């Protein structure tokens, strides 16, 4: 944890915060390369077998499911399905998503809403990986034969809230460690209050790196790999039109 001193100029926070994030990225580059490749291999195998790729997260981690979906430079295949149930998003209500993510029973609703099958893959993002819903859902999907990939922080200070005593990192086939500190803070202000969240930035980095490697693997193995272009470049709308139509038709 970096302590922001009284002697520091306010504008120095940009560098302090940036240095913290840079150090985490460099650590990930040294330690997580094999896990990112392993995750990409799981996704490639699922697509090769005609299976689906799901993304799941609650609260702020919900954003990771949005990050990969229908975006410039992103995978445009209809086999990728983000679980974007609005009640899981903290934007819909300040505390409702927190309450839901602690309910193991809510896995019933998700399992009955999405047609998970053996051989599918799911990327589950949870900074703590401790709450009842994500652990219950991961356990059920793993039992079904779905490949579980975790983006999380396997912090020993965080104890499971699930009756199994397990956390997401204990269940997943591949674990991408986002190197988040306890409480998702990295800087202590002069009044002693910690701030400086890192999980969103670093998790997005890990997921986008994983997806980039996955798409390159598909191309190298001659697996069909549609990729969106930005709608804000010349010709982007024309390039994307068929992809958007296919996605819309697949969700009906």
User: What is the CATH architecture descriptor?
Assistant: 3-Layer(aba) Sandwich
Number of strands: 8
Number of helices: 9
The stretches of 5 or more residues where confidence is low (pLDDT under 50) are: none
What's the short story on this structure?
This protein is an alpha/beta fold and 252 residues long. The protein has helices spanning 13-31, 33-48, 62-67, 96-100, 107-113, 132-144, 168-171, 199-220, 236-250, and strands at 2-3, 53-57, 80-82, 121-126, 147-152, 174-177, 187-188, 194-195. The longest helix has 22 residues, at 199-220.
Report on the structure:
The chain is of the alpha/beta class. It has one domain: Rossmann fold (3-Layer(aba) Sandwich). It is 42% helix and 12% strand. The chain is built from 9 helices and 8 strands. Strands 3-2-4-5-6 form a 5-stranded parallel β-sheet, with helices on both faces. It has a 3-stranded mixed β-sheet with strand order 1-7-8. α6 links the parallel β4 and β5. α2 packs across α8 and α5 packs across α6. The longest helix has 22 residues. It starts with a strand and ends with a helix. The mean pLDDT is 95.
